[in-house]
Design a protein that fits this description.
single chain; 120 residues; 5 strands; binds magnesium ion
Length: 120
């Protein structure tokens, strides 16, 4: 089973993403902030993390760097999930260490297609 952690503070986006992941047969857990993201990553083995950028407290870039700097978690793919969709943003997030980037609002076909390669 593919286990996915979703870090997202918007209840609307969270519900949508969890529903799609469930439809795909993935096991998904959701948290709304960085502290819970780090705590959950310590307690569960995830195959993929979907990371919103604008979050209360630590932003998604900082959380991603904390996880990638930890030898235990550095191989977990982390995808930025964000409304930042200006030209150059994808390159910027990849340069920050993210494995991929999906812009919001989410295009469901594109989203499911791109997540398929993380299926275990
Ligand atoms: Mg947000």
């Amino acid at each position: 089973m593919t286990k996915v952690l979703v870090v997202e503070d918007s209840p609307f986006n969270m519900e949508l993403v969890l529903e799609v992941l469930d439809d795909m047969g993935f096991i998904a857990a959701g948290v709304t902030n960085g502290a819970d993201a780090i705590k959950n990553t310590e307690n569960e083995v995830y195959d993929l993390i979907l990371m919103d950028i604008e979050l209360p407290g630590m932003d998604g870039v900082v959380i991603q760097k904390i996880l990638k700097n930890n030898i235990k978690y550095k191989n977990i793919p982390i995808i930025a999930l964000t409304a930042y969709a200006m030209k150059g943003d994808k390159e910027r997030f990849i340069a920050e260490g993210f494995d991929d980037y999906i812009s919001k609002p989410i295009n469901m076909d594109d989203f499911t297609h791109r997540l398929e390669k993380y299926r275990k």
